[in-house]
Design a protein that fits this description.
- This protein has 270 residues and is of the alpha/beta class.
- 37% of the residues lie in helices and 20% in strands.
- It is built from 9 helices and 9 strands.
- The chain has helices spanning 23-31, 51-55, 72-83, 103-111, 142-147, 161-166, 179-189, 217-234, 241-265, and strands at residues 10-16, 38-44, 63-66, 88-91, 97-98, 118-127, 131-133, 157-160, 193-205.
- Strands 1, 2, 3, 4, 5, 6, 7, 8 and 9 form a 9-stranded mixed sheet that branches.
- Helix 8 (217-234) packs antiparallel against helix 9 (241-265).
Length: 270
């Protein structure tokens, strides 16, 4: 792990909310890395289970931030960004884990002495949905990443910390689907990137108490808020084709989520 007075290569930011059963696997997947020049930042977001008690064991190995008010995933990530000292930031959701113990070593070797804005990384999905995503030059094209990417998540990218701060790139707080705006604005500004054509994360899909496992009115409201914010951004752009495609995707997702909510409530809409 990080040696005293040495600037970390990576800051691993782990938001934690009601994940008492999962947090150990996430943290241990970082601790067990062969490459040890990193810092772990865990943001405890007002859990109502025993997550806070579980985190006590890591107080000597990680920086632990305790929120006084729940800010959702975006707010937790923002708190981590603000205290991070690493050259690059990796987001790790607390119910996921790093794919194996050599991924940080491979990322460090890939970056070398270069300075890039982002590294697009592969990942494996397990659980309810099982598949593997490996980035290619075609799927890392800016146009594709903005409007065609099926996986608009912040954690499958490794971000240069200075790039995020210089461009004031933070997440919407207290909002579901917080990745949507962040990814659009960040990818729009990425000029230099690398491709990590190997799985870095293992994403656990279908967790029973995740925010996407059961639809609610907040899911719909926050989807609409994202659409509204994207349209506001559109008014300041000269070229809107990519953003229009993004808005269309979000509108379709909102319709799908609304249908799911109505079905969940038990209303038959014909």
């Amino acid at each position: 792990m990080l040696k005293e007075n040495k600037k970390p290569r990576f800051s691993i930011i782990i938001p934690a909310y009601n994940v008492e059963k999962y947090i150990d696997k996430a943290v241990n997947s970082v601790k067990e890395q062969t490459f040890q020049n990193f810092e772990i930042i865990i943001v405890e977001d007002c859990s109502t289970d025993n997550t806070k008690k579980e985190l006590a064991k890591y107080k000597k190995e990680a920086t632990i931030i305790y929120h006084k008010k729940n800010k959702c995933l975006g707010g937790a990530r923002n708190s981590g960004i603000k205290v991070a000292k690493g050259e690059y930031i990796i987001f790790l959701d607390s119910d996921d884990y790093l794919n194996n113990n050599k991924v940080l070593e491979k990322l460090d070797e890939l970056i070398g002495n270069q300075k890039v804005d982002a590294i697009y990384m592969g990942f494996i999905s397990v659980g309810k949905k099982e598949f593997t995503v490996i980035p290619t030059p075609e799927t890392c094209d800016k146009s594709y990443r903005i409007s065609g990417d099926r996986y608009t998540n912040a954690w499958s990218k490794c971000w240069n910390r200075e790039f995020l701060l210089d461009n004031n790139l933070f997440f919407p707080e207290n909002r579901y689907y917080e990745d949507v705006l962040f990814i659009f604005e960040a990818i729009s500004k990425v000029e230099k990137y690398l491709i990590a054509d190997f799985p870095v994360h293992t994403y656990v899909s279908g967790r029973s108490n995740s925010i996407t496992s059961k639809m609610s009115f907040k899911n719909i409201y926050d989807n609409i808020r994202n659409i509204e914010d994207l349209i506001k951004i559109r008014s300041n752009l000269n070229e809107t084709e990519q953003l229009d495609n993004k808005v269309i995707k979000e509108v379709k997702r909102c319709k799908e989520r609304l249908d799911e909510l109505v079905e969940q409530i038990g209303i038959n809409v014909k």
